[in-house]
Automatic annotation (TrEMBL):
<comment type="similarity">
    <text>Belongs to the TRAP transporter large permease family.</text>
</comment>
<keyword id="KW-1003">Cell membrane</keyword>
<feature type="transmembrane region" description="Helical">
    <location>
        <begin position="237"/>
        <end position="255"/>
    </location>
</feature>
<dbReference type="InterPro" id="IPR004681">
    <property type="entry name" value="TRAP_DctM"/>
</dbReference>
<feature type="transmembrane region" description="Helical">
    <location>
        <begin position="12"/>
        <end position="45"/>
    </location>
</feature>
<feature type="domain" description="TRAP C4-dicarboxylate transport system permease DctM subunit">
    <location>
        <begin position="16"/>
        <end position="453"/>
    </location>
</feature>
<dbReference type="InterPro" id="IPR010656">
    <property type="entry name" value="DctM"/>
</dbReference>
<feature type="transmembrane region" description="Helical">
    <location>
        <begin position="108"/>
        <end position="138"/>
    </location>
</feature>
<comment type="function">
    <text>Part of the tripartite ATP-independent periplasmic (TRAP) transport system.</text>
</comment>
<keyword id="KW-0472">Membrane</keyword>
<feature type="transmembrane region" description="Helical">
    <location>
        <begin position="261"/>
        <end position="279"/>
    </location>
</feature>
<keyword id="KW-0812">Transmembrane</keyword>
<dbReference type="Pfam" id="PF06808">
    <property type="entry name" value="DctM"/>
</dbReference>
<feature type="transmembrane region" description="Helical">
    <location>
        <begin position="428"/>
        <end position="450"/>
    </location>
</feature>
<feature type="transmembrane region" description="Helical">
    <location>
        <begin position="150"/>
        <end position="173"/>
    </location>
</feature>
<keyword id="KW-0997">Cell inner membrane</keyword>
<comment type="subunit">
    <text>The complex comprises the extracytoplasmic solute receptor protein and the two transmembrane proteins.</text>
</comment>
């Protein structure tokens, strides 16, 4: 081939290496950073990378991730969600919702969906949410003779809402990668997140209405009525909802930064555990240990992704991607659809952290240059670059919901199977998640076709 230089294709080889080495079972942070360092030395051999550039990576990690005040919110949001789980607040909430919806078709499944929506506004730790709801709800659903596929699909899908509905850890990370306001992203993700929850709710209600045998109702003898039910609502439903309103309301009203609001949430979750008499030393110790380990894992991934992305760009990765995209001749909408397809396919094999840290820095400059005409204009005003990137971030976030549910590496499926009764087969779980993956794709199409679903709230409340 004329004018073929192997060093021009190093960025493409980096992706190929990542796709292969991620299956070795090594920690992803080591794989990402190792590939970056390895290709840095390879670039030195071909005189397209210099050793001094490794020092730039250190300054980017220290001056970027370590000194970013928004990132301080991540461990505190993790602590808040873990404390609500370990202190039994979530268990009480599920029982309360079950009583309130006992006469509705599929009431227990709907309770799981609502609980997943409420708990999503406390934490973006999908593993914790899915495991918690599996342990709390699945045995009860099985005792009530719920269809195993409906039960497992509902739990897995509802547990993944925490990655989209704010205050989501993923949105905090996206705001840093795209250099857009985290408050804007939080507002932009609310309606799409609620739309997904609404689609789940409608699907469960209609399916159970048409086939009541899938979800038998709660026996009347187990129901709670009158004053006892009102007291249950006050004790179990109001406190976590009030905490969520306090955290998100303080951000949206401008009273607190996301970091400050995360601190309020962490203290509030601890206070709820204290009021319920469940703030014991073993609980506090376990919550702190799990929060520290999860936070350390995430920040190690951030550092590894910084190494990968810097070397990728230094080797000409940005130019290569732009050339490949422009050479495809797809147009703005064709490129957007192609990127959404790439993210969807990557979701079969990678976790959201890897996809976000690798895809966003590479494709964000491409998206910022695309022309969508007047499609993103809200209120007759031309969309800014920040609004385009906000819309793109929400599309990616909705798309990444599927990464937790699609085999062979759907992490929510593994979490669920790991703690589910032995009678639940992986085939039943796969069958159960198919309708919810289709609903997630429908949600993605709606946000893509109606961008005001993502842009109306930040444009209206923050103008």
């Amino acid at each position: 081939m004329d004018n073929f230089y192997i060093e021009d294709w190093f960025p493409l080889f980096m992706f190929a290496s990542l796709g292969i080495l991620v299956f070795t079972g090594l920690p992803v942070a080591f794989v990402i950073s190792g590939i970056g360092i390895g290709f840095g030395f390879l670039g030195m051999a071909y005189d397209v990378f210099s050793f001094i550039e490794f020092f730039n990576i250190v300054s980017r990690i220290w001056g970027g991730i370590s000194e970013n005040m928004v990132m301080v919110a991540v461990p505190m949001f993790i602590y808040m969600g873990t404390m609500l789980e370990k202190s039994g607040v979530a268990e009480d909430l599920l029982e309360c919702l079950n009583m309130l919806l006992r006469k509705v078709p599929g009431g227990l499944a709907l309770s799981v969906t609502l609980m997943g929506t409420i708990m999503a506004a406390t934490t973006g730790i999908i593993g914790a949410s899915v495991v918690m709801m599996t342990l709390l709800a699945l045995p009860v659903m099985m005792r009530r003779n719920y269809d195993p596929s409906l039960a497992t699909g509902t739990i897995a899908a509802s547990g993944t809402l925490g990655i989209l509905i704010p205050p989501s850890i993923m949105l905090v990370l996206m705001s840093d990668l795209l250099s857009v306001s985290v408050g804007n992203l939080f507002l932009a993700a609310i309606l799409p997140g609620l739309i997904l929850a609404g689609l789940y709710t409608v699907y469960i209600f209609v399916r159970c209405q048409l086939n009541p045998s899938l979800a038998p109702p709660l026996p009347e003898g187990e129901a709670i009525h009158g004053k006892d039910l009102a007291m249950m609502v006050v004790r179990s439903f109001v406190p976590p909802v009030f905490l969520i309103v306090l955290v998100l309301g303080s951000i949206f009203a401008g009273f607190a930064t996301p970091t400050e609001a995360a601190g309020v949430g962490a203290v509030g979750a601890t206070f709820l555990a204290l009021v319920k008499g469940r703030l014991k030393w073993p609980v506090l110790k376990d919550v702190c240990e799990r929060s520290a380990l999860t936070g350390a894992m995430l920040f190690f991934l951030f550092a590894g992704a910084t190494v990968f992305s810097y070397v990728f760009r230094s080797l000409g990765g940005d130019d290569l991607v732009i050339d490949l995209v422009e050479g495809a001749g797809l147009g703005s909408w064709g490129i957007l659809l192609l990127l959404m397809l790439i993210v969807f396919i990557l979701g079969f094999f990678f976790d959201w952290v890897e996809i976000t840290l690798i895809v966003l820095p590479i494709f964000a400059p491409v998206i910022a240059q695309l022309d969508f005409g007047h499609h993103l204009d809200i209120g007759g005003l031309e969309a800014t670059e920040a609004q385009v990137l906000t819309w793109f971030a929400v599309l990616v976030a909705v798309n990444l919901q599927t990464s937790f549910l699609t085999p062979p590496f759907g992490f929510a499926l593994f979490y669920l199977k790991g703690v589910a009764p032995k009678s639940i087969t992986i085939q039943q779980i796969y069958k159960g998640i198919i309708p919810f993956v289709l609903l997630q794709v429908l949600g993605l199409i709606l946000v893509m076709y109606f961008p005001e679903l993502a842009l109306w709230m930040p444009n209206t409340l923050l103008e």
